[in-house]
Structure formats: C-alpha cells, structure tokens
Amino acid sequence: MLDLSYTAPKVKTIAGAKHDWELVIGMEVHAQVSSNAKLFSGASTQFGAEPNSNVSFVDAAMPGMLPVINEYCVEQAVRTGLGLKAQINLVSAFDRKNYFYPDLPQGYQISQLYHPIVGEGEVLVEMGEGVARLVRIERIHMEQDAGKSIHDMDPNMSFVDLNRTGVALMEIVSRPDIRGPEEAAAYVTKLRQILRYLGTCDGNMQNGNLRADVNVSICRPGQYEKYQETQDFSHLGTRCEIKNMNSMRFIQQAIEVEAKRQIAILESGGEVMQETRLYDPDKGETRSMRSKEEAHDYRYFPDPDLLPLEIEQGWVDDIAANLPELPDEKKARFIKEFGLSDYDASVLTADLDSAAYFEAVAEGRDGKLAANWVINELFGRLKKEDHDITESPVSPAQLGGIIGLISKGDISGKIAKELFEIVYTEGGDPVEIVETRGMKQVTDTGAIETAVDEIIAANPAQVEKAKVNPKLAGWFVGQVMKATGGKANPAAVNQIVQAKLGL
Amino acid sequence: MTDLNTLGLAEARDALRAGETTAVELTESCLKAIDAADALNAFVHKTPEIAMERAAAADVRLRAGDAPAMCGLPIGIKDLFCTRGVPSQAGSRILQGFLPEYESTVSQNLADAGAVMLGKLNMDEFAMGSSNETSTYGNAISPWRRGNDDAALTPGGSSGGSAAAVAADLCLAATGTDTGGSIRQPAAFTGTVGIKPTYGRCSRWGIVAFASSLDQAGPMTKSVRDAAIMLEAMCGHDPKDSTSADLPVPDFEAMLSGDIKGKTIGIPREYRMDGMPGEIETLWSQGTDMLRDAGAKIVDISLPHTKYALPAYYVIAPAEASSNLARYDGVRYGHRAKLAQGDGITEMYEKTRAEGFGHEVQRRIMVGTYVLSAGFYDAYYNRARKVRTLIKRDFENVFAEGVDAILTPATPSAAFGLGEMTDADPVQMYLNDVFTVTVNLAGLPGISVPTGLDSQGLPLGLQLIGRPWEEGDLLNTAYALESAAGFVAKPGKWW
Fold this sequence. Notes:
Strand content of chain B: 5-15%
Oligomer: heterodimer
Number of helices of chain A: 16
Helix content of chain B: 25-40%
Shape of chain A: elongated
C-alpha cells in the first residue's frame, strides 16, 4: 500500500458579524456508469441521440415489463468501490423509491437503500504539497437515472425524453469530512480523476454524467472535533442539501453563499431549517426547493422483481487484480521513478492521457527534462489553442526526439524551442529537421575558441571591465552565441570565455 | 364429431393426432360456443381471425406429423396477459385502448406449443377481487346456477372469465393467474381444475403485475391431465424475468400414474375454521378418505401461523400493488383524463387515476401506500414480511417431516351470488382467500380439484398443496383424488 504522508489542511473559518464559523460538508456524487446498456434494460446509453430513441419497453414501464440487472454495471460499481478502497458487499439488494414524475415512467426509481453494493471507503484529497484531506466514503449504491422533462418548448405542454431513463448511476456518498468550498471542489475533482482512471465514469459534468448534491452546515469552532470524537451529529448544525451541481465553480460558489445565508440566520437568532435547495448562479443565491415537511415520502421497499444481488469473492478478486494503477500510486511512482517534484507529478497524473504521454516521452530519457517540456512547452502550447493532450500534433516520439537532442547536447534550449515550434506546426522527425536545417549546436571547441578570441579582440574595454566585474563574462557568452547563430554549446562557450578572460 | 368444444385438451389432442377432427373444426366449434355465450361475459376481446389462422397453421403441422404438445388446441387467455396487437387491459379502464407491441412469455410459450388463442378473458380489475365484480367489462357470470334459481352466480375471481369459459366449454382450457387464490378459487367455484405452480415456474414477463412476489400464471382446465399438459407448455426458465427459476421442466403428464401408495398427506388442523359450513367439512373428510383409500398415509399436521396469513397477505399484496400500479399515470399509454384549463401534472395524475381505477383497486392502492409510508412501514409491511417468513417455515417444517402434500378445502363456501357481497365489509370478500393465500406467501404449488357438489348442486373443490418444484408429484396426487372423486357434473346450459 501507498504511504503518502500528509497533514490535514487548515480549516477555513468564516467570520460572521458576531462569531467565527466553520463549514461542514458532505457530498452525494451521482456518477453515470460507463456502460453501453442501461442498468436494467438492454437499451443504449448513447448521449445526444434523438429524443426517446434509446427507450426499451422496460424503460417506458410498459405493463408487465421486468428489470434484469446488467452485469457489466455491477462490475463497474465493484471496480469503483475497489478504486476507493472500499468494502465490497457480496450481497446487496435493490429497493424501490416511489414518487410520481412524468420522466419517471415506473413511478419508482430502483435504487439500493438498505443494502448497497459498496460500503465504507476513502478518498485522499490533496490540497497542496504534503497537505491533504482524507474524506471517508460512507457507501456507493447503484440506481436508475430518470428521464428529462422539457417545459419550455410549448406554452401548454411539457415534453418528456426517456433516453436517460434507466441509465445506471452510482451514488457515492461521503461522510461530512469536507471542510471548505475549495476542499469540496478538490474532492469532486479527485473523485472524477479516480473514476476516469478506473474507466467507470467519463466524468463529463457538462452532459450531467457527474453531478453532486452538496450537504452544507455550519458550526462554531471546536464543535466538529466533538463530532469526530463521538460521531454524534448533534454537535453539528442543521444541514441544507444543494441539489444537482454540475460544475466545480458553482459548487464552490454555492457553498459560500449557503454558508453566509446560514450564518446570517443563526446570528440573527433564527434557526436553519433542514431542506433541499437549488443554487441559482445568475443571482448568486440558493433557493428553497422543498422543506423537510414537503419532502416526499418515498415508501422505499425491496423490489420484488429482483432477487438479492449476490456476487462471488473470486469475481471481486479478479476485478481487483486487474485494477489499473490509480492516481495516488501513479503520482508516487512518477516522483520516485522520474525524480519529479510533487507539483509536476500532480499535473502529469491529473488524467490518464497526460500521464501516458509523459511516460512515453520520459521512457529512457531525463524524466525531469521530459516533465518540463511536457508541462511548460507542450501543455502551454496546447492550451493556447484550446486543445486536449489527445489532440496534440506532437507525438510523444517527436517530443522525445527533441529532448534526446537536448540531452545529447546537439541543440541548445533556445534552438529546441524553435525546433518544437517547427515540429508542432509542420511535423517531421526532429533529428532530420536539425540535420537538414543546420540547427545542430557547435560543440567543436576550436571553432568556439576562434569566435571567443574574435570577440575579446574586438572589445578591449569590456575585457578590462570584466576583470573587475566577473559577471560581465555573460556579455561575452551572449556575443559569442549571437555570432554563432545560437548554435554554439552555451556551456562550452562559458567555459572558454572564463578561461580566456582569466577569471 | 359434434360439440368439439366440450372436449378437454388430452381428448382433443388425441383426436387431432388420430385425424378424427381438425384444429379448424375444433376452433370453429369453440368460436361458435363463444358467440352464443355473450350472456356469460367471459370473453371480452374475441380474436377469431388469429384463432382461425393459428388453427389452419396447426392443421398443416398436424398433417406433417410435426405437431408440438398443444398443436391446434383452442384456449382462452386471461386479459392480464399482454398479447401482441390484441387489447390487454387487465380488466381496467385505465388500460383502455392499450395494444401491446409484445407478447407475454407464457402466451408465447403456448403459441409456440401450437395452442390456438380464441380471445381474452374477463377478470377482476388488475386481478384484485374474488368474484370478477371489479372488472371494467362488467361481471363474468358463472354457467352454474343454484338448482332452479336463475340468480346469477359469480364464477369466482380474479380469473372469473377463465373459469366461466372453461366450465361452459367455450374453450378447451384457459390461462389464469393467481396472486392469492385467483386460479384455485374460481376453479373450485366452477368445477374445473386450476393449478398455481411454484413461484418462479412460469415467467411473469408480459403479465400485468399485481403483486410481483406473489403473482404466478397457471392453467385452468377440465381435468388434472389437461392441467399437466398445459402447465408443461406454459412454464420454463425466462431470462427476462429475474425471479424465473432456471430449472428443467419435467414431463408432467408422464408422471400421472394415479399411484400414491406410501405418500404422506397432511391435514392441517389450523384450516378447520370456526363457522366452516358442514358441507365443506364433509367434503374435506371425504377427500381425506379417498386419498387414504388410494393408499396414502394421512397425518394431522400443524401450520401454526396460518391465522396471520390473510392479514399479512392484505398488507404485502397491496403494498406491492401500490408501487406496481404507479406506472398507470396517463403519460404514455392507456386512459388519460380530459383536463380543465389550468390543470397541471398533479391534476392529470389525480383525474386520470380517479377515472381509470375502480374502487377496489383504489382501495388497495391506498392501503398499500399507507402500509409503506414512513412511520407505518415497520408496523405493517416489515411485520407482514416476517409473518411471511414464518408461514414459509411452517410449510418447510411439515415437508421436512415427510409430508408430500397437504389437503385443505379450496374455498370456505360454494359460489355466491353476484351482488350478494356488494354491501359487505371488504374483509368478508377477502375471506374467500383464507385457504389459498398461504400458498402464495410461501411460493408453493397448489391445485384445486373439483370433488363434489353442495346441496344446491354447486361445485366444491379441494386444494392440494405440494413441495416446491414438485408439481409433477402434486399433479399425480390430484389425479388420484380426481379419479376417486369422479366429478363429472356440468352446468345445465341456460345461456
């Protein structure tokens, strides 16, 4: 197992008019399972299809239709649980959550209230070098997504699109271990990263494939520690649940405005009511959606159409054995194997494509140099054009070629940047380009000596000054580089200049 | 041959194979009988074109010597089964106009076995009822009458149309479904045979759900042999139903030896209810004697939790129903209420469901919603589930002690008159299920066999309950009982 030592981040306090307050946040993240078919029907899950084209008789809840579990979705949930170092429950069961809505054809959502497939796990959320929050996962259960109601297409009618109906979701429920807006966003980011590494959710928040319900409460400093000791929620404030957040930015904003709202209520002697709220990013406020009293009575009961879900330890072990390297492990390995800084390793392991690209570049080369080039040159250049690493016109082999030329001393850093630009815009083999365009660095000391001699001879005044002020040697190096069109090896030039000037 | 419609499945099958008649003749005979029996209101959607087409196809296969088990045998299908392109309303207004684009697994299995569908049969709305009086199509009427009294009697429910149709020889056999006794009670009321197989034996796919953990399809026939033939054709594993058992289907008919020597038959003392009519008591002891005479060993047994079965059933079944029926909301198919200006989605739900569901269905939805609601769940639903476990254990215990089958009355009385229970407490009606619900709660196979007539000439039936998955053995015991009872009475034709 991994042993990353870290310290917990400082808890953010918010100053109210009267007191300081702390935030306590728990999250329910709904992640769409990456699967070609829905959780209980064979219908496709493809995004962006014609409305109501990915709908089976089961999804439309036609009379007499029955759900049959999609085994692959179960495998994905197990894989996710393993990725979050969670307990896998070999027996779980499905329950019906009953409520009426036009985009819920069955009149109930099949979920797992009483016996979820995944139990307790954890996510390490890094908040800087050596600083991290360990967020405990309470459970992960599988459930069906609902369809989509469209109210703004017709003045008198609502429309329903059932394409999403029955798509498999994993609801990942955290403990209230998150202590600030930044931590909340970092938690979702980390979760998303892990899910994408595992291939169990594409993490596309724009399409709603990853969305979060955020439970926010506030407490006075010291109260949270009492909760931690006792696990007694009465030490904490009353929570409000902000529903359906699908952007990191909005999650942070919503938590901040909600905390301020609750502080204002408590400091004016009021009471925070437990309720479900919605965040309105345009107005920058949260609004009540329904109070506890108005909350649905979901009348959960075991779904009699489905037998308890029993899986075998051997099957779980097989999935575990084939789990990919996860972000924390990859990062630790990059630090160890390539000598990267914590920051560089984090950047390069943020997603699998970047990590794979870097590894291909660094293979058999200077890891640190490779990291610098991938992060600074390549990522910078891609960002300018709003490109993704997968759209990079420079292949790992090409970038590796450039780095190889630098390491060999064939080209200087400056030339390398020119070469990179050529490869980026025109393509081609870097070694060939350097040869054909005469970009190779001059390492012939004889030639460099001649150039140095010429510069010294032409600038006697500067020579005198340099003898008093040795820093001026750099001026001579610059002149030599200029004279050689940048192709002279700067280290060699420096050495010769120093010697000739007698410094 | 005349009156081909009066034949049973086995007789007709043999006649067809011997070339004594044709499927077309057989089917025409039934269609004629159906058309002459509108007074019974048994068939609510007739499908003569489908019937004649399938009969003609069956004759081709018969002539080619390639006839499957039920080739050319005309049957009726309970309206609860979804049948492709044919109205399938579950006896409810809320499914008015609904034409499924799919065929239930059971009706497909029957079609694959060559059976000829004559049409859809009346039933209590969503199979909720014991008298067929909750149907949107109106009452199905029993062909039986009390002596010379011409008062209309119930054929029982919920498979009332199926029972009436089989008893009146409108078809050779029919499908039924049984959630709390809906096959066995109407069979007992009409002098027919009805078996509810082990839960999981027949696929529920494509059958409109009432209470998913209790619902099972089964045949309603004129003899035990016919029940064996038809059950074999109906059942089998179906990957589309997660609760369907992946077990081989035995040759049930081949197991009908009539030899029950050495079998142990249990007589449960808890089924001897207070106020049980003497005729039922007598019937039961006669049945006991018949089995003893046939060589079975009779033992008194105890099923101690029996008295809790009916209340537990009337918690669990409505709970599941309240959820299963949530899909009938007027959004996608079936009835949708006309809305007033300004009505929103809530009004659409309320009006649609108020208009679409009858009172009994509404009552059960409300009961089910109540027992699942926060604060009541443990007191009702969870407790009922625990009772269910205990009832199941009662049966497991007696089977473990060597009991092969259990003999009980099928119903607490003979058929009652339509309308007689209208003003009664609904619980009076629920008492009809007192001998049958335990079997559903325990998931066991149960069969109703006609064994006698009451003083007014109405049929009475006894129920045999078997071990799980041992329908073959159960059918054989029923066959022995049937042979001993020699029940041959038929209703006098008045329609």
